[in-house]
Write a structure and sequence with these properties.
The chain contains 29 helices and seven strands. It has helices at 11-39, 45-75, 97-117, 121-127, 137-169, 172-196, 207-217, 231-239, 250-265, 293-296, 325-333, 337-344, 348-354, 356-360, 366-376, 381-401, 414-417, 424-432, 435-444, 447-459, 463-485, 492-524, 530-536, 546-550, 554-584, 596-614, 624-628, 642-654, 659-679, and strands spanning 4-8, 83-85, 88-94, 219-221, 228-230, 402-405, 408-411.
Length: 686
């Protein structure tokens, strides 16, 4: 127990009795002393001081009696296991009364939980009053030790079996009532498990943690018959209830989380069973991943808080939802970068390659993606190492299924290709956080460039991911232009490199929509016009509000952009573009681009015009009345018509502002990106 000291019985009871008796004796002594001093007409200050000491002693005596009462309760419960020492039985007794009370409440909660596991409905209801204490370390530890590792595993299974009985009975009201109580109890247990196994509360090498691992691997039987389950199936259900406040510790993930993956790794190998998004649910077979309790008992979303459960799909039994016991683990890990990193280290090859078919049976890697995004999006050494490992594993697998034929891309096996489709959005965000590294690889045309193109080919099929990635790169390009032109300088090479990378994103979006065929387009509602629509909003004209977004100037933000600026500016651009699209599309105000290449060329000019006009006073020999009277200075670039565009081009030629040369170089780089991207899928020896 946090802040605890050890006491022995009956020595503690004797000490309390003796101290209480001493209070009375000292008070009698103070009264007698005051009478004697008064009779002798001497100052009574010594007696007053003694009375003051008696007051303090009585406060301490009351405190000791409160501790004694709680200790007597602890002795009558199984919540605390005393320490057996050569000097006698030692009981944990903290100095803090509130901590002691929390520990006692944890013990009471453990007793109620045991009764609830045996079917006591009243105990299940009474257990709810302790939910708010689950985050207290003393409560959490007492609850866990009171239940024991076996009880932590068997409580969720017993409650889930009770809910299954309600479902079978057909009593909808009882299902609704018990669901609330059971989900609330599991959420309390989840929080207590996160708090109680944190290093500040419990030694990661404690007996409880080793027992929890053993019970997780062991086979358990549901109460009243009805089959068996593995302990980790029950624990996964608890982990899935985590709200991240607090997250599970890295130590928990190293001890328990990694063992859950090892337990899965040593299971029977799967046969190839690709599952496409939108296909009817097939009944579980021996090739499915080990389900959590919800999947095992066919409870659908009933073990999920009602506010997070999706609406039932028409024509489908809401109780027939395939689950995977690693889903809960990944969801819990995703609340902490350090916990996710501890879990995923040295496991990515198995999770991303060997286990593809298992993920395809449930969420297609969505929860895995959540953990990966938290673990890999930063730029510390651990994040970068994990991303490099994931990039290589996924890059190789994607290239094995996507081939270049006649200058076009072709997906060889759509079912296999879609096994990790749930990973797309998270993976796209990870890639978007490493734009700088991707740009460097494309410029160098190194081995990593092939992996980056493979990742792009996979993620850009998702509309939201493409939108986010494209806007982040547009923001990065605009920030680079602002940084250069704010000082009156500009580099064709820098702009060309930035637009070349955007060209990879655009080209692979276009290629992959064709490669996956009409079937996928219908399933994903992928829109081949999205590039034209994005450019048609005038996204390249929008100036980034550095002061509002970052509280800093462009140069400061650009220098720190590799860490946070591109994503934040990209998010802002994405929202603005979505708003502009919603406004312009119904009014038919989007310009009719002939193809994606024409849209890309226009985007180059949008950014150059907007940036150069914003910083035009920085160019040599520019300014004064001549500039002020130019037609293009009388309205913002997004409102220019052909006359203003022509006048601006003439003004740039006259003052040696490299508008056309910069645009031509950037367009060439952007257009060449198509061939570079496709060539990275040509057969190479891996």
């Amino acid at each position: 127990m946090s802040g605890a000291v050890g006491v022995r019985q009956p020595a503690f009871d004797q000490m309390v009795a003796q101290f209480s008796a001493a209070c009375g004796l000292v008070e009698q002594c103070a009264q007698a002393l005051q009478w004697e001093l008064s009779q002798a007409q001497l100052p009574v200050a010594p007696a007053v001081g003694l009375r003051s000491m008696v007051g303090r002693m009585r406060v301490e005596a009351n405190d000791l009696r409160r501790r004694q009462a709680i200790l007597h309760h602890l002795q009558a419960t199984t919540a605390y296991v005393p320490q057996w020492t050569p000097m006698g039985t030692l009981w944990d007794l903290p100095d803090d009364i509130s901590a002691l009370q929390a520990g006692m409440d944890g013990g009471k909660a453990a007793e109620l939980a045991k009764k609830a596991a045996q079917g006591d409905t009243q105990a299940l209801s009474q257990l709810q009053k302790y939910g708010f204490e689950a985050g207290d370390p003393n409560f959490a530890k007492a609850l866990l030790l009171g239940l024991g590792a076996k009880g932590v595993i068997e409580l969720p299974a017993s409650l889930a079996k009770k809910l299954k009985s309600d479902v079978v009975s057909g009593d909808a009201d009882k299902v609704s009532t018990d669901r609330k109580l059971i989900v609330s109890t599991l959420k309390m247990l989840s929080k207590a498990l996160a708090v109680g196994t944190a290093p500040r509360t419990m030694d990661p090498d404690s007996d409880f943690m080793h027992q929890l691992k053993a019970e997780g691997r062991a086979e358990h039987r549901f109460p009243g018959g009805g089959g068996t389950y593995k302990g980790y199936q029950s624990l996964s259900t608890v982990l899935a209830m985590s709200d991240g406040h607090p997250p599970f510790s890295p130590q928990f993930m190293r001890t328990i989380g990694r063992d859950m993956i090892d337990f899965d790794r040593t299971g029977p190998k799967l046969k190839a069973q690709p599952v496409l998004p939108g296909m009817p649910y097939a009944p579980p077979t021996s090739t499915d991943p080990l389900p959590d309790l919800g999947g095992l008992l066919h409870l659908g979303w009933l073990l999920t808080p009602a506010e997070y459960a999706p609406a039932a799909e028409q024509g489908k039994n809401p109780l027939d939802r395939p689950t995977d016991y690693l889903n809960g683990l990944m969801k819990a890990a995703a609340f902490s970068k350090e916990a996710s990193q501890a879990l995923l280290k040295d496991n990515l090859g198995y999770l991303l390659h060997d286990r593809r078919e298992k993920w395809a049976r449930t969420d297609h890697g969505t929860t895995l993606g959540l953990a990966m995004k938290v673990a890999m999006s930063d730029h510390d050494a651990h994040s970068m190492a994990l991303f490099a490992e994931a990039r290589k594993v996924l890059g190789k697998d994607i290239r094995a299924n996507v081939k270049a034929e006649g200058g076009k891309l072709k997906v060889m096996d759509l079912g296999q290709f879609e096994q990790l489709s749930g990973l797309r959005y998270s993976l796209g965000l990870i890639v978007g956080s490493h734009l700088e590294d991707m740009d460097t690889s494309f410029a160098a045309k190194d081995s990593a460039a092939r992996d980056y193109d493979a990742l792009l080919a996979y993620v850009v099929l998702d509309n939201d991911t493409f939108w986010a990635l494209a806007n982040s790169q547009i923001a990065r390009t605009r920030m680079g232009l602002d940084n250069q032109y704010s000082s009156g300088s500009g580099s064709d090479e820098t702009l060309a490199q930035h637009m070349g990378m955007l060209g990879h994103i655009f080209a692979l979006r276009q290629e992959m929509l064709g490669a996956v065929g009409e079937q996928y387009k219908k399933q994903s509602e992928a829109n081949g016009e999205l590039i034209k629509e994005l450019v048609g909003t005038g996204i390249g004209y929008l100036p980034i509000p550095y002061a509002n977004l970052f509280g800093k100037g462009v140069k400061e933000v650009y220098e720190e952009g590799v860490n946070y600026g591109y994503g934040k500016a990209g998010d802002w651009l994405a929202q603005k573009a979505q708003s502009l699209l919603a406004d312009k599309k119904p009014k038919n105000e989007l310009p009719p681009f002939e193809d994606d290449q024409a849209a890309g060329n226009d985007l180059v000019y949008q950014m150059l015009r907007s940036t150069m006009v914003a910083h035009i006073a920085q160019f040599p020999g520019v300014g004064g009345r001549e500039l002020k009277n130019q037609s293009f200075m009388k309205k913002p670039p997004e409102q220019w018509g052909d006359p203003e565009k022509d006048d601006f081009a003439k003004y740039c030629r006259k003052h040696n502002i490299p508008l056309v040369s910069s645009a031509d170089r950037a367009k060439l780089s952007m257009n060449n990106a198509h061939g570079d991207a496709v060539s990275n899928f040509a057969d190479h020896k891996e």
